[in-house]
Model the fold of this input.
Amino acid sequence: MSRKKENKKLRIKSQLENLRKVREFVRKIALGFGFDEIETEKIVLAVDEVCTNSIKHSYKNNPDGEITIEVKENKNKFVVVISYGGLPFDPSKVKIESPIEKFKRTGKVKRGKLGMFIVHSFMDEVKYESNKSGNVVILTKFLRKNEG
Amino acid sequence: MGKREKNFDVLVSDKNSIKILKLKGYLDAYTSLQLEELLRELIDSGNFKFVVNMKDLSYISSAGFGVFMAFVDETRKNKGDIKFSCLSEKIDEIFELLGFKHIFEVYKSDEEAIKSFEKVGSSDVKKKRK
Done:
């Protein structure tokens, strides 16, 4: 029997203290979908990073913005759609580099851009869309057969 | 009330010249500010050797890692370091996946982390005697 298509949605205000709600929401669904603890943690981290970036960079810490997190489950595909307003996000302007590569290249440990590295290394697919109604980030992870 | 993630707290203790920071709860973009302020204060008052115990830390995001990344070079320049101990299985895996074990020293216990500072200390003393 194929897994039933289901949509689950959470809407939060653009405040960092709400990140915890987002993590709890995503963690519960990912575990229920069949991901193990580590794979679930990766998804939770990726979603957290996208929401954090939206609050800090798109909403510039304005607490009145809205972020919608929607989870779509379809067969072995787990998709998290994060929609928010504020300033548009241009992913082409962000250089994604692992912390070790950066450390080897510069000899220095510097923070920054780690969130983007986490999103791209922990998810199978990452898509960005910006239009008049706002920004959408679509994160996808596939459940492998040996899991769940 | 069900079991919910606790917010965040740091317990600071001293062992010789080393500050042991025991983290509790979760470290994300919301709570990392508290840790950042604490580390800034400790470094500004001349502390450069840190052991960060993560036994009771349930979660860490890039904002949490970012605090340590922001200060580690400064501690190392001052003959100190930020070292980690007692990572949970989940956080250990995240350290591994992000390659942080190539940047930071990770130990199984506070004692081992403290000892590693002593080794550096003794070699410094030898150098000074020469």
In short: The two ends of chain B are 63 Å apart (CA to CA). Chain B touches chain A at residues 5, 26, 28-30, 59, 61-63, 65-67, 69-70, 72-73, 90, 93-94, 97-100, 102-103 (CB under 8 Å). The CA atoms of residues 62 and 128 of chain B lie 39 Å apart.
